[in-house]
Each structure stands twice: as C-alpha cells, then as structure tokens.
Amino acid sequence: MAILHAEAGRNPYDRGLTDLVGEMSTRSEEFRSRWAAHNVRFHRTGAKRLHHPLLGDLDLTYEAMELTADAGQTLLVYTAEPATPTADALQPSQLDRPTKASATTTASDEATST
C-alpha cells in the first residue's frame, strides 16, 4: 500500500493509477480503509508472507534498492532463508514439477488432437 501511495504522490495525474485506486476502493472495504489511512512509510527491508497458488505460503525477506540511473525506480529483491520450507518450495526441481492445471491442459489437448 505504501508503494502505491508513493507512486500516486509522484504521478498524481496518472489516469491508469487513478482508475485502479478507484476500482479497488469500490470493490474492497479493506483497501478503502487502508488507502484512507495514508500510511506512506516505505520500508527498505522486511519480511513478507505471500501465497502462491501452486507453491503455497512463502515466507520471504526483502530489500529495496533505489536505481540511481532511473529516478523513481526501485528494485525489490526477495529471498528465502536457507533450509526452510520456502527455500525448498523455490528449488528449481520443485518449480519444474507438473501442476494439476498443466496436466489437465495436456490431457484435453491430446483428446482434441485425435
């Protein structure tokens, strides 16, 4: 939310951003109240829990780095602590495993090609 507020402050006439905030405000009471709180603190480091639809809950640490060559651009780097369930889930061998959705697509593709 803080990053969205900061961007709105940098570009107050950005039509796409204004439309997005308006749409989110009409669809979500939580968004509306958090947006109205104007909490614009920007955290350079911290921890986030994200939910990935295939991998599940991921506990990540992050660091924000300003890109001096591009004013207004920030690079966020997320990492998983070693030897944790999140690190295990993000291993390439886990990312390459077939998903239920891809297996369904493959089966339906084969059925239509015969």
Task: Walk me through this protein's architecture.
The chain has 114 residues and is of the alpha+beta class. It has two domains: 1-42; 44-96, no CATH class. It has helices spanning 2-10, 15-27, 29-36, 85-89, 92-95, 100-113, and strands at 45-52, 56-66, 74-79. Strands 1-2-3 form a three-stranded antiparallel beta sheet. A hairpin with a 3-residue loop joins strand 1 (45-52) and strand 2 (56-66). Helix 2 packs across helix 3 (29-36). Residues 103-108 have low confidence and may be disordered.
Structural class: alpha+beta
Oligomeric state of this protein = single chain
- Percent of residues in helices comes to 40-55%
**What about the largest sheet?**
3 strands, antiparallel
Strand line-up across the major sheet: 1-2-3
- Give the number of domains: 2
Basic shape: globular
Low-confidence stretches: 103-108
What integer is the average pLDDT? 79
Order of helices and strands: HHHEEEHHH
Helix tally? 6
How many β-strand stretches? 3
- Terminal CA distance reads 50 Å
